[in-house]
Specification:
This protein is mainly beta. It is built from one helix and five strands.
């Protein structure tokens, strides 16, 4: 499968909101996103879970107002892991992993 590389226009796409929309269409998948928030002179670990169309962060507060960005800070997303829901403590739930920020914007990559 050909990988789509990010372009300068990607800044115009609200990645997390688009991933939430895809997640709502495929309710038996959990997307775990890892990255970091850029704050003054340091980075803070960031983890976001997207499930059934909703985002939740295990590390930072997020915005629930759909008209605002999910994360108000400047952030970098570094890794995306897709799992079958419900989550269990086995490797059987793991489906795939990708570091390309647009890979999971293709709904076929959720199956």
């Amino acid at each position: 499968m050909e990988e789509i590389l990010p372009s300068p226009k990607m800044a115009d796409i609200d990645l997390l909101n688009n991933l939430e929309k895809i997640s709502s269409l495929i309710p038996n998948r959990v997307l775990k996103i890892e990255g970091y928030i850029l704050k003054e002179n340091h980075k803070e670990q960031l983890e976001i879970i997207i499930f059934k169309g909703f985002s939740s962060s295990t590390t930072h507060p997020i915005e629930i107002d759909l008209e605002k960005k999910v994360i108000e800070f400047r952030y970098i997303l570094t890794n995306f892991k897709l799992f079958k829901a419900p989550l269990k403590e086995t490797k059987e739930n793991f489906i795939r992993e990708n570091q390309n920020s647009v890979f999971f914007l293709n709904q076929k990559n959720w199956i």
